[in-house]
Amino acid sequence: MDYYLPVKILNAKYLKSVTSPDRSLRGKVLEVSFVGRSNVGKSSMINSLAMRKIAKTSSTPGATRLINLYLIEYEHKGARQQAIFSDFPGFGYAKVSKSMQKDWQKMIEGYIERNKEIQKIIWVYDVRREPDRLDEMLLEWFLDRELPFSIALTKTDKESRGFAANKKRLFKQYIKKGEILTFSAKTGEGRKELLEHILKLGDVLKKLNNN
Ligand SMILES: Nc1nc2c(ncn2[C@@H]2O[C@H](COP(=O)(O)OP(=O)(O)OP(=O)(O)O)[C@@H](O)[C@H]2O)c(=O)[nH]1
Ligand SMILES: [Mg+2]
Q: CA-to-CA distance for 161 and 84, rounded, in angstroms?
């Protein structure tokens, strides 16, 4: 019988900072990547999910410059498992020079396209934002490359429930696959659901490895 047992975080710590996929981790562990615009709350989301302040957050955009990897140990359905959360530098920050933005974009694209361990990309999106060309380009890239992404509409504490529901509907028109979840690092809204959504993938991976 499949009974409900929540995911329990056992430990979480900083592992390393990289600019390309880490070969020593290949095939060993589920990786979940948190991407999105600068200052949207990617690092805060990781801290909230891990229930520890492991990722550096800041009210000044550009706090995360490299791809920071965190090792998360958790218990799911009675089994101890591991995952890597990768925290990405935010894009679209106007004060960064064009050439630097290009370098970041190359690093991010290269990392994601070459990294076969990534089971899930969480596109962290400020619920208050109206999509612009840059957001559209990211979405097109996800769809073109058939990347496994879900959308987490964040900072929901800043708007009403109805507002978030409308935004969810808007995104649903564009994506057929992939879930859209809501989240607030401030209130913890949606934390449990997002954690389940991400880490249930670990069960699939485990099954594949055991067969
Ligand atoms: N109200 C509210 N504020 C949030 C939430 N999540 C993040 N913030 C705030 O938004 C700011 C940016 O948060 P970060 O987690 O550093 O954002 P980031 O996406 O990692 O930023 P970069 O690494 O610079 O791209 C900080 O001041 C956070 O306190 C949220 O859910 N609600
Ligand atoms: Mg950050």
A: 31
Output the DSSP codes for 140-164: HHHHHTT--EEEEEE-GGGS-HHHH
CB 66 within 8 A of CB 89: yes
For residues 78, 30, 36, 133, the Cα torsion angle rounded to the nearest 10 degrees is -120
- Ligand 1 pocket test: which of 49, 57, 65 has the largest number of ligand atoms within 8 Å of its C-beta? 57
Q: How many CA atoms lie within 13 A of 94 on its CB side?
A: 0
Does residue 20's CB lie within 6 angstroms of at least one atom of ligand 1? Answer: no
Q: What confidence tens digit (pLDDT) does each residue in 17-63 have?
A: 999 998 888 777 889 999 999 999 999 999 999 999 999 988 887 76
pTM equals 0.93
Question: 37-73: buried (b, 16+ CB within 10 Å) or exposed (e) per residue?
Answer: bbbbbbbbbbbbbbeeebbebeeebebbeebbbbbbe
Residues linked to residue 68 through DSSP beta bridges, in sequence order: 17, 87
Mean pLDDT of 181-201: 93
Q: How far is it, in rounded angstroms, from Cα 2 to Cα 134?
A: 42
* Angle at 188 (CA atoms; ends 36, 149), nearest 5 degrees: 30
Gap between the Cα atoms of 52 and 49, Å rounded: 8
Could you list which residues have their CB under 5 Å from ion ligand 2?
42-43, 63-64
Q: Which two tokens stand for residue 157?
A: 């504490």
